[in-house]
Amino acid sequence: MASPGFEAACGEIRGACGNPRRLGLLLAPRSPAERQQIRAAYRASFGEDLAATLQGTLVPALCKLLYLWALEPAERDAVVAREAVEGGTTVAGYRALVEVFTRRKQDQLFFTKQAYMARFRRNLDQDMVTEPSHPYQRLLVALAASRKSHHDELSQHIAKCDARRLHDAKNGGAGSVVDEAVILELFSKRSIPQLRLAFCSYKHIYGHDYTKALKTNGGGEFEDALRDVVKCIYSPSKYYTKLLQRSMRCAATDKRLVTRAILGSDDVGIDEIRSVFKSCYGRNLADFIHESLPQSDYKDFLVAVARGSAAS
């Protein structure tokens, strides 16, 4: 039985189904857990799936975002991953897949793969494999192979050893080239939290971020892809803050980038993203979005998301 509070919210949402702006404002400040409770209560009250109901709203751009907003994390990651795969071998598509693979614990990623199979009758790991292989794809396959290691406890000793391996893999190669085999082996045997700890140890030992070392003397496609993956793992809040800032500059032409930025920020936590945005850009996030986009229901939803619980 749904709680009275969520039953009331469901009634409001039901009454707003013909009003996309109102729908957006009702759902924007809700946490991921609250949205799932509302979705369950909505099904119990009306016998309908809220996500499917939102998919039928009238404004295409907002409709898609509200639909994803209402899905469980595994479901929406499956949808984002499928769109990335169907988009072909583009950098944007690979980056979307990297975000899916690095922002979830491995047990959660298992449910994403299950959701992908259930929805699309396809295997996500197999769909990522292309010929000829791409640097992003090779890194993704390595991350996908690290399933068992995600249950290991974090080790500071291993992190220090890995930091030195990262350093040697960069400085032992010819010119600006890293030793790809070493990197792929490391990524295939370490959990995301353990890799994050290794990047922290690298900065402590060598006095600069690993991504800075990768930029030295340029680098090739693999180094560029590796730098993106490292940024996503090392500081998700900073990564999605910068992605959100960049997405506003091309929001009129690239709604998928906005969607990636908003969903990633939601996973990290809007409060944290708001704080990091203020620190990085000296601006209030909600005000920045308000000033960046033309008036629309879509804009009102994004501003309300940026304000978080304060918008309710």
UniProtKB/TrEMBL annotation:
Alphabetical GO CC annotations of the entry are: cytoplasm; plasma membrane
Listed PROSITE patterns: ANNEXIN_2
The Gene Ontology biological process terms listed for this entry are: response to cold; response to heat; response to salt stress; response to water deprivation
Q: Which UniProt keywords apply?
A: Annexin, Calcium, Calcium/phospholipid-binding, Metal-binding, Repeat
InterPro entries per record = Annexin_repeat, Annexin_sf, AnnexinD_plant
Superkingdom field: Eukaryota
What SMART domains does the entry give?
ANX
Any one Gene Ontology molecular-function term assigned to this protein's record: phosphatidylserine binding
Designated name of the protein: Annexin
Taxonomic classification: Eukaryota, Viridiplantae, Streptophyta, Embryophyta, Tracheophyta
